[in-house]
Amino acid sequence: MKAFITVIGHDTVGVVARVSGLCSELNINIEDVTQSILQGMFAMIMLVDITKCNVSHEELHQKMNALAAEMGMQINLTRQEVFDAMHTI
């Protein structure tokens, strides 16, 4: 199952490392990533495969929220099927 992870907040050292480290810890494969710094704000979108994630969806969201709080950033995880359903005409 594919998902998107979005990260937004003030640019700081180690954002990519911390998010990708959590993905590695949870056995989430990063398939594609794009990032930009816009007037001091960091923005990143990752396409990930959560098929082999070693925690429940609920725990995955809890861990992402905890990391976001630690970093003072916003992190969202959206399963691709949810995203596709929102954009089906």
UniProtKB/TrEMBL annotation:
Q: Which HAMAP family match?
A: UPF0237
Organism, as annotated = Faecalibacterium butyricigenerans
Q: Which family does it belong to?
A: Belongs to the UPF0237 family.
Which superkingdom does the taxonomy of this entry point to? Bacteria
Q: Which Pfam families does this UniProt record tie to the protein? A: ACT_6
Q: What is this protein called?
A: UPF0237 protein LKD23_00675
Q: Where is the ACT domain?
A: 4-82
